[in-house]
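Structure, all two chains, one model.
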Amino acid sequence: MDLFQIAKGAALRMAADSKPRVRFAPSPTGYLHVGGARTALFNWLFARHEGGTFILRVEDTDVERNKPELVDGILDGLRWLGVQWDEGPYFQSQRMDLYRAAAERLVASGSAFACYCKAIQYAGADAVVEGEEGAEKAARTPPCPCRDMAPAERQEKERQGLPRAIRFATPRTGVTRFEDAVFGPREVQNAEIEDFVLLRSSGVPTYQLGAVVDDIDMRITHIIRGADHLSNTPKQALLYAALGAPAPIFAHVPLILGADRTRLSKRHGATSVGSYSEEGFLPEAFRNFLALLGWSTGSDEEFLRTSELIARFTLSGISRTNAIFDRPKLEWFNSQYLQKLPLEELLPYVKAELQRAGLWRDAWDAAEREWFAHTVDLLRPRTRLLPDFATWARAFFSDDFDYDAEARAKFWKDHKLPDLLGKLAAALDALADWNHDACDHALRALAEAEGVKAGLLINATRVAIVGRAVAPPLFETMVVLGKDRVVSRLRRALPHVAAP
RNA sequence: GGCGAUAUCGUCUAACGGUUAGGACGGAGCCCUCUCAAGGCUCAAAUCCGGGUUCGAUUCCCGGUAUCGCUACCA
């Protein structure tokens, strides 16, 4: 290996090192909600676009709220979403020594101090609002006096073995700056920043410490996260400096709100990713919708498959305003994907749905694969969610279906119908060839002979053979169902038509 | 209360000093038609308010207002 080769290798290594490293860091205090899902998606899109690395880290330091059993649900949600992580999942609960060591280092260097105050319970957001004029400032947390404690007193507290938290010694003056790819360069007065806790008296790190120590350790280059963290970022910028590490680029993503403009929560209906999976949304449609919530390409195109999202994703396209979760638009995206996806990509989803409904037949994957594909293709313009295939379109996959009440009321009114449908069954039964035009001709000939409009027969027949008023065009439906089924279903329907 | 961010049709958004302020969802209507969708066409619908700067502000600055966030030994 000559010098050139060595230099080239070094250059390549540097190039590899300069690739972005990003992370998604959920805490297992709840399911994966749409806000978190979008944050994960943005991180993933950014990593894929840049050829970087996407890391998954579980921030499970809050022993009180943490529910380990929720981790699997979050991972499942991410898998369904299709955002594969390249490293991890790492668990903060398994890295405690790292945070404690960092806290001790900060105390040793004078950037942090031990605090012996009693922990103040969070009073809730309403606590401040409640105060009448005059008393309104009472709820502010007082500054911790331990920072300026005399050495003798401190020794005494230590000797007594009092529980101690570690707080950051925020500079009293000056400003702290950081760079945000979405909100631009930011600066805050240090005087506005309290001496925040780094290590709880239990020895467990807070979010601020854990996140920064891990982001340094994991060599994170871009922190893409919810804008609810924007106000706290100066604290972390301070921590980076105190820990002697360069700060990463931040990119704060605006929040997703409910229809009432408040933070998305349970009372807004489905907010967990899992519920959208269960409802029968296609992951790619969900990704497309989510990606466009708070990010745009700058163009008018909206139907963007994942490869296109990756190709176009940039941090500069991220919006600065909160977005409201718009369910109708999500459904529109889903119906678009149901219609536009290459058929071969759609079939496995329909298969899974039919299996779930107990309607699946293995032949549809083998000898009758052609039939299955054609039927799905016929059905899909009228579907909005995956379960539509098993519910609304049930009669296409099973002989066990019933007649929709509204459809009967609307299309089985005419008293001539029992007679007409009986004759139609006979006419169809006599057909030598079974195809669209043959069915068409047979039905229209009968209509003409009987002096009724073809529509009367068509609509009544549709209800008889698929049980619903809403279905694909009749003759295509007949072809798909086949002669035997159509004729027998017509005859089976006769008594129901006679007695509506 | 303090600090901060944000502000374009109902919703998601485009515009990066000059446009009849564009697109999409949703809504209304028409076409197509055997139902319902899909598709095509059309319509209604927005620059929070007030001051500046400028020949010219959706766009830049200031103030107000509203909303959201942070202000926890939650993340």
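The two ends of chain A are 89 Å apart (CA to CA).
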